Amino acid sequence: SNFVLGNAQVQSLYPIVYCSDGFCELTGYARAELMQKSCACNFLYGPETSDRLTGQIQSALDDRREFKTELVFYKKGGTQFWCLLDIVPIKNEKGEVVLFLVSHKDITDNKKDQDEEQCPELDEETGLEVHKVTRPQGFNANRRRSRAVLYQLSGHLQKQDKSKLKINNNMFGEKPPIPEYKVAAIQKSRFILLHYGTFKAGWDWLILLATFYVAVTVPYNVCFTVVGGRDDITPRNPPSVSDILVEILFMLDILLNFRTTFVSTSGQVVYDARSICVHYVTTWLFVDLIAALPFDLLYAFNVSVYFGVHLLKTVRLLRLLRLLQKLERYSQYSAVVLTLLMSMFALLAHWMACVWYFIGRCEIENNTRGSWDIGWLHELAKRLDTPYFLSPITSLLPDSLRPNNLDGLNGTVSQWNSTSSDIVGQDSSAANSTQWNGTGAGSTDEVLSGGPSVRSSYVTSLYFALSSLTSVGFGNVSANTDSEKIFSICTMLIG
Question: Does domain 3-110 correspond to CATH entry 3.30.450.20?
Answer without folding.
Answer: yes
